[in-house]
Each structure stands twice: as C-alpha cells, then as structure tokens.
Amino acid sequence: MKKSIFTTPPLIFFLALALTFSSVMSVYAAGSHYSTKPVDGITQEQPFTKGLADSNSYRIPAMITIDEGEHKGRIVAAADVRWNTTYDGGGLDTMVSYSDDNGINWNYSLVNYMGDNGNTYNGSDSTTFIDPSLVYDGNKVWMLCDLLPYGIALNGKDNTHPTKETGFDDNGHLLLSNNNYSSYDYYLNFEDSKIYKKDDNTPMSNYTVDKKFNLTKVGDDSVNTNLFFKDSPFKLQRTGYLYLISSEDGGKTFSDPMLLPLKKDDERVCLVGPGRGLCTKNGTIVFPCYSHTSISPGVGVEEKTCFIYSTDGGSTWKRSNSATTTTKSSESALVELPNGNLRFFYRHQNDVFLRYIDAELSGDTYIWKQEVKTDIKINTATQMSAMIYSEPINGKPAFLLSCPTGKDGQGSTSPSGDSGKDRVNGKILLGLLNDDTNNTIVWLEPYNAVEINTCFMYSCLTELKKEGNNKKAGDIALLYEDKQNGWGANNNTYFTIKYTTYSIADIVKNNHIGSSALDEQLKKAEPLVAKEDTYTTSSHQRLKDAVTKAKKGKADNEERAELDKYAAEISTAINGLKERAKTDEAKTIFEKATKEIEKKDKYTTESLKILSDATTSLKTVIDDNSDVDEYSMKELISKVNDAISKLVFKNKSEDNKNSNNSSGYYYGYSSHYDYSNHYNPIAPVPSSENKTDKAADKKEENITEPSTSKKLKENDENSKLTDKTPTDTEISKNKKDNTAKKIFTLPSKNNLITLKSVSVLDKIATRKIELKQNKTNINVSITSEALSKLVARKSVSFIIKGKHFNVRLNAKNIQTLNKLTHKKFTIKVNKQKNGKFKIKISIDGKILSTKKIANLKIKVN
Q1: 691 by DSSP, 3-state: which?
Q2: Structural fold of domain 584-657
Q3: Are strands 806-810 and 846-847 parallel, antiparallel or unpaired?
Q4: In which order are the strands placed within the sheet that holds 214-217?
Q5: Which of 105, 101, 89 is nearest to 44 (CA)?
Q6: Whether the domain at 3-167+237-508 and the domain at 584-657 fall into the same CATH topology
Q7: Cβ atoms of residues 595 and 576 within 8 Å
C-alpha cells in the first residue's frame, strides 16, 4: 500500500527579509573570530590538497557541473575543512573550489567559516559545518550544510549530543535563551534581525544581529560574538540546523544564509545527505536528507531517508516524511527518473545488497513506493553518489552510481575506512532504465574506479560539459576520499580527497552511447511501417527489412558505426517510399478502351493488338495495385490513351484521315509495370533519362559525337536491343536446357532489364540468371523494380556474359544495389588495349566515383 510522505499538511515557511539573498557576501561584524580566516587562492589539479589553507584534513566531497548560462561547463566542488582532525565535530568549516578547465586549475575560498576554533580541533568549544550538498537550478548554485552549535556533534556524548528540539517557535523564529538553556524566553525575528522578548514581543534594542548571526551589543565592545558561539549571551537550542546559501556567480561568492525550520521535535537531528541534490525537469530543487533519532548516544538509533524541496526557486521549502523502508536508511544518492519520480539509493547497513526506493509526485505531494532490494553487492555502510547521464546508452536512459564494494567486491556492512578495511574497491556502476511502470534496471558491467581493494570512501560524480572544442565533454569526473589515516585529533590523523576523470567510452565499454541517428530514424520509421497499405509493396518491404535488421543490430549491441549504417539504410528506405496508386482514373480509361476493342471490324488487327496489350497491362494493375506507384500508373494510362488515339481504321479513306498511320502504326512504349503475358517486341521511344545517361557517358569517355549516318546505324542496332519477354516456348526450352544448372538465360538482345524481363522467374524454380550479350563491351541497365524482384526471389547471381569477359553480380551486390537505386542502375565495362578492364557505373544517370565502384565489389572475369 502506498503511504503518503505527508501525514499532515506540509508547512511552508516564509522567512521574509532574512531569506532574501544577495550575490555579494555580507560584511562580517568586526571581531577576532574572523581574523583567522584563510584568504582565497588558486591550486592546480586538485581542489582540496592536503595542507591547502593550512588544513591537514579534508572530507565529504560534493560536486556539480554548471550546464548552462555564463559559467557553462564550470565544475563547482565543496568539502569539509577538518583542519587537524578526523572527527565529525569540534570545529569544522566548508571550502568551495571551482574550475573552468575541467580540473586543471581551481579557485578556492572558505565559504562557511565561523572562526571560533582557531583553525584547529576545539572539542566542545567550537561550532561545526559538516556534510555539504550542491545543486544547480539553471540560475543559482545552492549549497546545503548541517550547522551545529558549539560543542555539538552527531556522535557526541552527554551534553554534546543533539537535543530533541526544533530550534524554532511556531512562527519560524529562532529560539534563544539568556539563562544557560533553562528556558527560551527570547527569539530572533528574521525580518528585522532583532532579538525580541517572547512574552511581550519587546525588542532588545541594545543588541544587533547581522545576516550571518554575528551578535554585538551597543556600547559594549566585549560582546562581539555569534549566536552559535559558546560565549554568546543569547544561546540557541543545542540541536542541528539546516544551513542554506546560494551563489549567482557560479560559486565565486555566496549569499547570506537561510536557516530552514524543517526538523521535528522528536528527532535529534535532520541531516543533509552529502554530495549532490538535483533540480527536476519541472524546476523543483531537491536535497536528500535523513532523520536521526536515538534514546541516548549510540542506543536505539533510528535513521530514515527523507528530502527537502522547493517549487518556487528556493523562496520556501517543504520537507517530506520519512521513507517507508524496512531497514535503517540514511545518506542517499538521488536521481530523477524519466517518468518524473525520484529514486533514492540509500545507506542502510542491513545486508550487503544495494537498495533503493522511489517517491512519486501525486498532486502537490510525493508518495513513497515499494522499496527494492537489488542483487548488487556494495559496502552499504557508506555514502554513495548517483547521476543520470546526459545521453542514452544502448538506447535507454542511463545512470551512474559510485560506491565502495567491499573487499574483492563482495560487499560489506562495516563503516571502517582505514586502509585495508571495508571501504575499499570503488566502482562506478552503470544502470539502464527500462521503459516500464517501475523503471526497472538493467545492470551493465561495472567499472573499476580505483585499483582493486584500495581505499575508496565517500564520493561524488559529475559529468563534464563545456562549450567549444572540449575533448572531455561527456566524460565523468569523480571526487572521492582516497585515504584515511587513523582516527582522532592531531597532525597525524587525516582524510584526503582526490579528483580524477574517466573517459565515458571506457566506463560503458562496448555499449553504444547517445541518442544515435538510429534511434531517430526508428522513431520516424515506426508509424510508416504501420501504413502498409499506403505504399507500394516493394518500397514498403525495403523499409520493413531495414527496420528489422536495425532492431536486431541494436538488440545485439553492435558497434556504433554499424548502427549508423542501419540508420542510413532506414533513411534511404523512408525517402524511397512510393505511395500506392489509386485506380479510379485507370478504371475509367479501361472501360473506354474495352469499348474500342470490341469494335473489331472497325480497326486494323495490328492497332487493336497494341491497344489490347496496353489494356491488359492496365487491367493487371487495376486488379492488383499493391506494387504500383502513381507515376507508373499514369504511364500505363497514358499508354492506353495513346493506343486509342492511334487506332487505325480498316477503311482506306479513313486511313488517310489518320496521317502517317495509313500502314497501321504500332505505337512504341516501355513500362516498368507491364504484366502482360503476351507482348509484341516494339522499338522503344528513347526517354530524356536515357539521353541524360548517354550524354554523361560520352562526357566521361570523351567520345566524339558520331556522324548522322552513324547515328542512324546505331539507332537501327538499338532497335533490336529491346525488353523482350520470353515466350512460353522459350521458357520451356530454358527449363529443359538448364535443368541441371538451374540457370535462366534472358534473351541475348536485351540491354534494359525491367520487371517484365524477370517476371517470368515466377514460372521457373531458379535463383541464377544469365544474360549473353556476346559483345566486345558490356552495356546493360537494370531498373530498381527488376532488382527488387531479384532480391525478393533471393537470386544468388546475375551474370552478364560478353565476348571476352563476364560481369557477375552476387546476392550481396544485388541487395546493395537494390538499396541504392530508385530508377535505374547502368553498368558499362570496356576492355582496354593493355588488357585491363574499365568499369563505369551510373545510378539514375549519375556516374559513381571509382571509390564507390570499388566498394560495390562487382566481379569482372
């Protein structure tokens, strides 16, 4: 059963003027506690090197990339400055460092700094900033940290353990005590930064508080402190506070802070899930958090993941209820799923298996879904980092998750971070999100981020993005704790943090990256494949075949280059789709022609035969127009109309009326779609396309234009080279002569192979075809329809036999040419004086380059 994250209506806190941000840091109150703040500086290669700003120890990495705007591509990182301790309290601060060159140079500054520790461990006497988390919302960089008053630590004892108090009254005012915590009779009003007496709301006019909670007393220089300090005359409740700041200049400077009154009074603390939050597609800013409750320090501890979020650009904030996990769930790594749900991978220490839980937005609240236990072994006693990658992998949305996986990758529930212990063997896990209701995960092979079994603790991932020619764009940067040296507070105990980058190609290995051209073409093709009755059978089949092959290649995770080829084939097939012709006009012409044919006594036998043949062809496509496009249908209609107009009357006087047709003129016409079984060979009228091909061939060969008499002779020869359909007798002879060879021989005078030429293959069980030209040079053209027929018949070879050499097209050649051509493929082979052959190929009249011809691998023997 789904449980609502909110058990009561969420509170929305308006902190008014105190929550108004400025891109310029406030001027500190004059006081000695800021005099020890290290100055800003620059470092190379590493953002937080050991000894930087006189700090021996750095922990808790946070990192994001600014992906738009003026500072696009900038990496912003943050970490705890722990000075000379590995403890989680006793005077910690926050450093922010940013890089505009993928990590070569870094600009650093201490952004969260109280200064009451003297830049050294100060036990129970100093404030603590801890666990930074970063988000970029397209305008500002946001940083959320935990702020603990002096001496308070999560794992502290007795009076240093956080108290079960909210720190605020019902109006969101900060509660204050002037009697050493006996009672909280005062409050800080954020609107005017003044302290008021609670019982009568009287302002304490002799005290001033700035936007960073620095406190001074008018006329008394001895009071120069901070409300969070030990020596403050007004003390706030000794619990944890959520401390939020933002930057409008890409992490260079930060605003005044915002204290978020979102902790409940039955919790010891509500803490930040360090590393990175996110800004959702709808603009909601989200930070992962978790509650921590215990009866006493270390006893009866209960931790539950939750999150805080803002839907109005950070002006107001809400908090979710605790996640409905069956185990403890604390620090979590967060991603947004394609369906808008939020997924939290959380620390739990119950077993060694990675777990996650989703939160689904329902109206203006979120609903927790069922938690999921995976079979992935990790160290579950450590913080993780997760991020959605900017491009799909294998066509699916992908996310990366960094974490230690325990010794030999067998997982662990121990938080021990010393070298050789359990926080070791860091990996980057790669998960693909399925397009199903629950966005289930397909796990790919993980990537080893460090050497096997070496130290790897807290970490944070980000993707490198930068405008211009950035060779690392799309690669992955990782900031991780690579060493812990002991536990305690001295110069020999410390943590170190390392920044490194990885090629995304290495992480994904043999899987392909990106929303490739193939994905785009498949999107275009899917609706077209469904419209089978809209397009001609052959053109639609080419698309279906291309899509089928592409999907198989994608499923088999073939190389990106191969998938790009499939994309090109689909694109060609889409462009080659021909709409199926309508038959309305054809039926009208057919009826008209049929009436004329019935007038046998009126017209000569020869002219009626031409009309009858043309009408038969038209009737064939009327009965089955599945593979006839509009252009071809118009050609057939035109042929019938021409035959009607050129009918020859038997009467001599009538013959004279039909000028130039007195002898019974047979009108010549060649069609790609003539399905007639009875055909009289006639001289074709050369088309403009043929003329273009000849002109191009002459230009290529430098042939001199022949004389008129030579032209006439050539035309006479060409009239013999016609698209002749073999008669039944010839077919029968072919069958008998080639039974053993199973080879069909086309008539030797064909130089244009059309669909009609090879349609007789339907009557013959053969997959091999020969055309014997017996000429010195070979010059043959094949229409796209004929090629499609050969592919459909699964022809294994097409051999053109010349006098001195043969040209052979195998099954692969035929399939390739079928994809290339839309109208006509022409091949010419000349034997030169040196004995070598010169091949010239044109597709739709365009001559191919030598390189393209070589790629076709056509054999000449």
Answers
A1: helix
A2: Substrate Binding Domain Of Dnak; Chain:A; Domain 2 (1.20.1270)
A3: unpaired
A4: 207-209, 214-217, 220-226
A5: 105
A6: no
A7: no
Going by C-alpha positions, the residue among 391, 277, 397 that lies closest to residue 344 is 277
User: What radius of gyration do the chain's Cα atoms show?
Assistant: 41
Q: What is the pLDDT of residue 618?
A: 92
Neighbours of 401 (CB within 10 A): 24
Question: 138 burial class (0-12, 13-18, 19+ CB within 10 angstroms)?
Answer: exposed
Q: Residue 563 to residues 522, 552, 558, 819: CA-CA distances in angstroms?
A: 11, 10, 7, 16
323: Cα within 13 Å, side-chain hemisphere? 36
The token pair at 52 is 């930087």
Residue 721 confidence (pLDDT): 37
DSSP state, residue 777: S
Angle (CA) 47-244-111 rounded to 5° is 35
Of 42-51, 77-86, 351-360, 764-773, the one with minimum mean pLDDT is 764-773
Question: Which tokens hold the place of 433?
Answer: 């999100």
In this structure, what are the phi and psi dihedrals at residue 813, rounded to the nearest 5 degrees?
A: -55, -45
CA distances from 834 to 1, 427, 700, 803, 838 (A): 86, 65, 19, 17, 11
Amino acid (one-letter) located at 393: I
Report pLDDT for 447. Answer: 97
Task: List, as own/partner pairs, every contact residues 322-325 make where C-beta atoms lie below 8 angstroms and the sequence separation is at least 24, other chains included.
Answer: 322/291, 323/357, 323/359, 323/368, 323/371, 324/3, 324/357, 324/368, 324/371, 325/355, 325/357, 325/371
Q: What are phi and psi of 621, to 5 degrees?
A: -80, -20
Q: What token pair was written down for 336?
A: 């947004």
Q: Please choose, from the candidates 789, 791, 781, the residue with its C-alpha nearest in 3D space to the C-alpha of residue 841.
A: 781
For 851, which DSSP code? H
Task: Print burial letters for 620-636: b (CB count within 10 Å at least 16), e (below 16).
Answer: bbbeebebbbeebbebb
CA angle 774–669–608, rounded 5-degree value:
120
Query: What's the average model confidence in pLDDT over 253-271?
Result: 95
Separation between Cα atoms, residue 426 and residue 159, nearest integer Å: 37
* Cα–Cα distance, 223 to 817 (Å, whole number): 90
**In whole angstroms, what is the distance from residue 793 CA to residue 538 CA?**
12
Domain ranges of the chain: 3-167+237-508, 517-575, 584-657, 688-860
pTM of the model: 0.64
CA distance 258 to 21: 9
Please choose, from the candidates 217, 215, 264, the residue with its C-alpha nearest in 3D space to the C-alpha of residue 114: 215
Closest listed residue to residue 73, CA positions, set 218, 233, 251: 251
Our CA dihedral for 550, 552, 558, 562, rounded to 10 degrees, sits at -20
Q: Could you tell me which CATH number the domain at 3-167+237-508 has?
A: 2.120.10.10
pLDDT tens digit sequence for 344-369: 999 999 999 999 999 999 888 899 99
Longest CA pairwise span in the chain (Å) = 135
What is the spatial distance between Cα 617 and Cα 392, in angstroms, rounded to a whole number?
52
Residue 113: phi, psi to the nearest 5? Answer: -150, 125
Nearest-10 Cα torsion for 459, 460, 466, 469? 30
pLDDT of the residue at 31: 59
- What is the rounded average pLDDT for all residues in the chain? 83
Q: Tell me how far apart the alpha carbons of residues 619 and 459 are, in angstroms, rounded to a whole number.
A: 75
Please name the residue that has the structure tokens 């994250």.
Answer: 5
Q: Identify the H or E element spanning 815.
A: helix 811-820
Do 5 and 320 meet the contact criterion of CB atoms below 8 Å apart? yes
3-class secondary-structure state, position 580: strand
What's the distance, Cα to Cα, between the start and end of the chain in Å? 75
pLDDT of residue 781: 87
Tokens describing residue 848: 């191919």
Sheet hosting strand 459-463, strand order edge to edge: 459-463, 476-485, 494-502
Q: What is the dihedral of CA 659, 665, 666, 670, to 10 degrees?
A: -30
